[in-house]
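Feature request, filed as a ticket because there's no other form

It would be nice if the structure record came with a short human-readable summary line next to the tokens. Right now we just get the raw output. Example of a typical job, pasted below so the devs can see what we mean:
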Amino acid sequence: MNAETYIIDLISRWDEREVEKRRILPDPWLAASALQKAIRRGDRRTARTAVSILVETAPDRLWRRLVVIALEDIGISDLSLVAAVLWVSGRAAWRRQHSDEERVAVALVDALCRAPKCRDACDILVVGDLHPALANLRQTLPDLGDCDLAAMVADRGRPLVDRVLAGWFLAGSDRFPGAQLAPRHGSIRALLGVYEHIGVPADILDIAAKGATRTQEAHPISLPLVWAQATRAGGFEVREEEGESLGLVAGWPSEAVDMHTRPGRRALSRFVSEDSRGLDRVLSRVEPGRREEIIGTAVFRIEGAAVDRRLTYRGSDQILTDAEVAHLTWAGGTQEMAAELLDRVRRDLPRLHDCRIKAMGERR
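Raw output as currently delivered:
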């Protein structure tokens, strides 16, 4: 089934009677944040509500976000669905011709909510870009020629993260920037040639090629290598997990009010400035001026990683753990404190929820 047929089938099976409206603050920033968190948790009601807001207020942002969500959160767990999102995201005329904008988006969002989640294409990028153990590799790779980088990408004996970093520079870290990567001019076509050489199937090559035209995020670079690694590992399993929300804030799930939204930043400042004795011991060696950033990052890792069903295979849990360490050390922490900090913040999330309610001017 090609992407067009796949989407038409989704639209035909979507039942408008299932849509439930609720009173919310119609903020497109909160809606975009809620959309991604809801899809990760399989929360179709919230995801549909977010779509209705974004279709009216920021339709372009909606489709850009859906591209990132498909690559970042679904990834190799449902390649047909990822391909469908990439295909329709660049066809505004087709969406108007075959249905209204909201109907197409909601049909896809429902499918994204139901799909198993695999965030490894994102997390391996976080490891490559931010993990302190890879600092030397990040410095040396930009000086290598294309042939040397291509050889590293193709070397199945090297760690996955090394191959991803080499592919990142080969494709062009100027075109797909990272937080700590030196800009290097490259070619996504050259990288796709390497992937074809090592046996990556045509449908995944097409996802990488289309994805590279839809986003500046590096997920199209990492996804084929994650697929290759997972296929070699074998033994895919979908693990049921708890992705429950803390409750609602202004009609939105609490996790939508994160550090990338204005009220989320206000809530985080309140959370850090209030009684934080439980966190003081963990953060004793962190500069006071960086505490808000590192705690916000810990919250973002905890809430961002929560999914309803996770695709797992041998080595996938280690990618998640390494990404947590990389992200927290980038924010100013240490490798040794990462697990304890995440545990401490996780236990203190109800207090953060109260801070979010106060930041939005609400009462419990």
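Something like this underneath would help us a lot:
The longest strand covers residues 237-240.
The chain has a mean pLDDT of 91.
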